[in-house]
Amino acid sequence: MTADPPLVLDVDGTLTRLEGWGLDPRVFDPLREWEAPVVIATGKAFPYPVALCQFVGVPELVVAENGGVVYTGDDVFFTADPEAARAVVEDYRAAGYEPGWGAEDTVNRWRETEVAINLEQPVEPLREIAAEHGLEVVDTGYAYHVKDTAPNKGDGVETIAEHVGFDLAETVAVGDSVNDVSTFEVAGRSFAVANADAAATEAADEVLEEGHADGTLTALERVRGSR
Ligand SMILES: O=C(O)COP(=O)(O)O
Ligand SMILES: [Mg+2]
């Protein structure tokens, strides 16, 4: 008998259209029909992956904010303190810069542990200020994330696997950037899409020829029923 392996999927760069933005709707049915847990592991704020799970119609298994927020379907865990990240933004503003998402800032509005800065904003002063507060800046290719060095997506995936009761050794991870390296490390098999950055490409077991959702769909095709 064969079965589908559990999945860990990144969002931006991985479930997106080839242009880089907007989810590719071709991934919705395979995810809904997948016969094993599907974990959405993203740098985005908590409500985004929860909404994705609801709209696709899969159980809410979510790692948000690069591991800062973990939802097992029953319990939410916060693994980082937001105060330092907020202080970094205050200092960044005081130095004359802005997060860069407009006045209402729906990118950070519901964040609970880290802060994201628009890639169009200057990163050097951000890195300096973050370092002064003991934080790191992670460039996902979609935003600069100011975060505690400790939490990562992989730890969040471990928490969910333990709670839901699936085997990480049988799990397949797909991602595109440095914030996915930790999921590649905990999953038994990992794929980087063609548009992946150097860190993700290096860390992945396999690098796909196709980018974005095309790559992810190829990976799903390859691993479906492989357990
Ligand atoms: O929020 C980002 O910058 C990237 O999000 P992702 O982890 O889903 O790719
Ligand atoms: Mg990504």
Automatic annotation (TrEMBL):
<dbReference type="GO" id="GO:0000287">
    <property type="term" value="F:magnesium ion binding"/>
</dbReference>
<keyword id="KW-0479">Metal-binding</keyword>
<feature type="active site" description="Nucleophile">
    <location>
        <position position="10"/>
    </location>
</feature>
<comment type="function">
    <text>Catalyzes the dephosphorylation of 2-phosphoglycolate.</text>
</comment>
<feature type="binding site">
    <location>
        <position position="10"/>
    </location>
    <ligand>
        <name>Mg(2+)</name>
    </ligand>
</feature>
<keyword id="KW-0119">Carbohydrate metabolism</keyword>
<keyword id="KW-0460">Magnesium</keyword>
<dbReference type="Pfam" id="PF08282">
    <property type="entry name" value="Hydrolase_3"/>
</dbReference>
<protein>
    <recommendedName>
        <fullName>Phosphoglycolate phosphatase</fullName>
        <ecNumber>3.1.3.18</ecNumber>
    </recommendedName>
</protein>
<dbReference type="InterPro" id="IPR006379">
    <property type="entry name" value="HAD-SF_hydro_IIB"/>
</dbReference>
<dbReference type="GO" id="GO:0005829">
    <property type="term" value="C:cytosol"/>
</dbReference>
<dbReference type="InterPro" id="IPR023214">
    <property type="entry name" value="HAD_sf"/>
</dbReference>
<dbReference type="InterPro" id="IPR006382">
    <property type="entry name" value="PGPase"/>
</dbReference>
<feature type="binding site">
    <location>
        <position position="153"/>
    </location>
    <ligand>
        <name>substrate</name>
    </ligand>
</feature>
<dbReference type="GO" id="GO:0008967">
    <property type="term" value="F:phosphoglycolate phosphatase activity"/>
</dbReference>
<dbReference type="InterPro" id="IPR036412">
    <property type="entry name" value="HAD-like_sf"/>
</dbReference>
<comment type="similarity">
    <text>Belongs to the archaeal SPP-like hydrolase family.</text>
</comment>
<feature type="binding site">
    <location>
        <position position="180"/>
    </location>
    <ligand>
        <name>Mg(2+)</name>
    </ligand>
</feature>
<feature type="binding site">
    <location>
        <position position="12"/>
    </location>
    <ligand>
        <name>Mg(2+)</name>
    </ligand>
</feature>
<keyword id="KW-0378">Hydrolase</keyword>
<feature type="binding site">
    <location>
        <position position="176"/>
    </location>
    <ligand>
        <name>Mg(2+)</name>
    </ligand>
</feature>
